[in-house]
Amino acid sequence: MRSEEAFVAGALVKYLGGPEVAVASDGPDPPDFYLTVGLSRSCVEVTRLSPFTFEPDGTLGNRLSQDTFGIRLINDLNESVGALVPDKFSLLVGLWVPVGNATQFRKLLTTWVKQVAVIAKRGLKRTRKLAGSKASVSVIPRRSSGNKIIGYVANTRSSADIGLNARLILEDRILRKSVICSPLPKPIWLALLNDYWLADAETYAIAAREIKVTHCFERIFLISQEGLVSELAVGECDGA
């Protein structure tokens, strides 16, 4: 099992009563693993509930990959440009993603941040478009983290509606995994590892009640990053 699958398996084993009651074993992918409780063996598929974006073509995109680009770029700027910032200051860099041309944006941003670093003075703030994408740089007092360049990432294709996001993420994952897992022997369980930290178990429970879909999962579990497990009642299971 991969690390995240082993984490989920351990959480479910504990939830079901511990290793004296439940045993997890590798699966052929799908399912990711099997859980045996008494004489019953269930197929368990694992998937992540990750934040998404609304793409121009109407599909849901991967927000994590878009945001990660910005986060890595800020870290790279700290490594390559940070030494140019006067010791009493830090630069706060804001990036609006996704960007149209990543290579050009990175080059223009690096050049611009170098220019601001050289003329840094308290209260200086600049905003501009680089390769069609917005960026900002502010000079602030040196932060205790030690980094000369810190920042934040804003995604222009995301929604601030946590409930809507939770419902769409949940519905998307259930429907996609149901297509993959429906040929498996019953019973089939779905384990959802929550990466969307703004939504908790109660948020997903409310979202689950709003979803009217048919799927192949006899039980659906939500697992937090701390290993806490709860069950969700989502739509109807079509398998016996």
Please tell me about this protein's structure.
The protein is an alpha/beta fold. Helix content is 33%, strand content 32%. It is built from five helices and 14 strands. The strands form four sheets. A six-stranded mixed beta sheet has the order 1-2-3-10-12-13, sandwiched between helices. A four-stranded mixed beta sheet has the order 7-8-6-9, with helices on one face. Strand 7 (125-130) and strand 8 (133-141) form a beta hairpin. Helix 4 (162-181) packs across helix 5. The longest helix has 20 residues, at 162-181. The radius of gyration is 23 Å and the shape is elongated. The relative contact order is 0.17. The model has no long low-confidence stretch (mean pLDDT 93).
